[in-house]
Specification:
Helix content: 40-55%
Number of domains: 3
CATH superfamily of the largest domain: HUPs
CATH architecture of the largest domain: 3-Layer(aba) Sandwich
Number of strands: 17
Distance between the termini: 27 Å
Strand order of the largest sheet: 7-8-9-11-10
Structural class: alpha/beta
């Protein structure tokens, strides 16, 4: 089946075709580490995790890069105005901004791990890539796409005729005094800062533009993506709030610099609502993962709650919904336990092969749902649909074993199924036999016999063995 993704750039679903066969270069907009990421932020990060997992499931090697913004993200980036978010906190609390970024970066990684997100290949920090940003800025100045005014460097949006293609904004509609504040330095109100000079800024670097400079937010991601993924990438993700101006500006400066398309596919998650409205500090509903745990919920319950809706649809969060999610996961865990019992002969249908067509249909529906722009609600429904046949004793041992294989595959993708210690079926101590299957799969893939490779992968999943293809070979582990 073809993997279809909704491309924000074109506004339609398209078959996913990477630039290189079976290799995907993916960039995910990460956190600005001036405060702790909240559950709304994690909807976007979790989406990136599931997207990466699904691409690997269908046989792709994924190089995932998620940035850490630790300078240059202003409180009003529509206007390049306000204060740097990180420095504003540092001044307010009288703390070194470098220490703030270091602390919240550490907490972010801890929260990612608690939520079950696989680690990206690289987490580049903006402050480690100043040279790469200045290289791009110099190139944009040389090509006439940028200009300098008193130590500040701006991108000239009128020199890039595709500006607005992603966000559907027209340059002529972006007038000063309406959406954008008046800035006499700019040739056009929509021009955005690539480099800024401010002697009062706490985090600053010397360049030919002066001794007190620092980058604009947008150039950071372009430079880091180019450094770690090359001039062209396959997928760029983020929240819907990133579409404009951030991602629109990324496209403009990257493509003006390289002369090539930047990202083939752009994918954006909708906002997470809380109690039917926006999250607000004044309402006290900006929740962290610590808040979730203090309410008595495992992070797995939050993960399920964030996956129960399609990423392109608004999703509501309440503590009542979290309670429903915990109950649903309990039902899923019970189903796995019942399937193990059927494999052991308890509650199995008399015909050992009974129900195999039901499991095959459920597996097909799960694959179809995920291939349809990561339709996680539909994929979860396919798993829960096996509940009635199991409770009613309509599955034989073979069908139960195949079901456990499906649940192991689903867990490798969604990360919400509790398969228990040792995994379903097989002898958990038989490492040699498992390694032989892993080696056979590697050889099949080397011979480009992908059907046999997939069969062996499914057999291993059925035994509760999860695979991770790395640059150093395939690593396996038990659930």
């Amino acid at each position: 089946m073809t993997f279809l993704v909704h491309n924000s750039l074109t506004g339609r679903k398209e078959p996913f075709e990477p630039l290189e066969p079976e290799r995907v270069r993916m960039y995910n907009c990460g956190p600005t580490v001036y405060s702790r990421a909240h559950i709304g932020n994690f909807r976007a990060y979790l989406f990136a995790d599931v997207l990466r997992r699904w691409l690997e499931h269908i046989g792709m090697e994924v190089v995932q890069v998620m940035n850490i913004t630790d300078v240059g993200h202003f409180t009003d980036d529509d206007e390049d105005g306000g204060e740097d978010k990180l420095e504003a906190r540092a001044r307010r609390e009288g703390v070194d901004p470098w220490k703030i970024s270091e602390e919240y970066t550490r907490v972010f990684f801890e929260d990612l791990e608690r939520l079950g997100c696989l680690p990206a290949a690289v987490y580049p920090k903006a402050t480690d890539h100043i040279a790469e940003m200045l290289e791009m800025i110099e190139g944009l100045l040389a090509s006439g796409h940028a200009y300098e005014r008193g130590g500040n460097v701006y991108f000239d949006v009128t020199r890039f005729d595709r500006y607005g293609r992603l966000s559907k904004n027209r340059v002529e509609d972006l007038d000063a005094g309406a959406r954008i504040a008046v800035n006499e330095e700019k040739r056009h109100p929509a021009d955005f800062a690539l480099w800024k000079s401010d002697p009062h800024h706490l985090m600053k670097w010397e360049s030919r533009f002066g001794p007190d400079g620092f980058p604009g937010w947008h150039i950071e991601c372009s430079a880091m993506a180019r450094k770690h993924l090359g001039d062209r990438i396959d997928i760029h993700t983020g929240g819907e709030d990133n579409v404009f101006p951030h991602h629109e500006c990324e496209i403009a400066q990257s493509e003006a610099f390289t002369g090539e398309p930047f990202a083939t596919y752009w994918m954006h998650t909708k906002f997470l609502q809380v109690d039917g409205g926006k999250m607000s500090k004044s309402l006290g509903n900006v929740y962290s993962i610590d808040d979730v745990v203090e309410r008595g919920f495992e992070p797995r319950v939050l993960r399920y709650t964030l996956l129960r809706g399609h990423y392109r649809q608004p999703l509501n969060f309440t503590w009542e919904i979290m309670a429903d999610s915990r109950k649903a996961l309990g039902g899923l865990d019970d189903l796995v336990g019942r399937l193990r019992g059927v494999c052991d002969g308890r509650g199995a249908a008399a015909d050992e092969g009974a129900g195999e067509e039901l499991v095959a249909a459920a597996a097909g529906e799960f694959e179809a749902a995920m291939n349809d722009d990561l339709n996680t609600p539909r994929a979860l429904a396919a798993l829960f649909g096996l509940g009635a046949p199991v409770r009613e004793g309509r599955l034989g041992a073979r069908a139960a074993g195949a079901s456990l294989g499906l649940f192991a595959a689903a867990d490798a993708v969604l990360g919400i199924v509790d398969l228990g210690d040792g995994g379903p079926g097989g002898d958990p101590d038989d490492d040699a036999a498992i390694q032989a299957l892993v080696d056979a799969r590697r050889e099949a893939r080397a011979q480009r016999d992908f059907a046999e490779g997939d069969r062996l992968r499914d057999e291993l999943l059925g035994r509760g063995i999860l695979l991770e293809d790395t640059a150093d070979g395939t690593v396996w582990r038990r659930r």
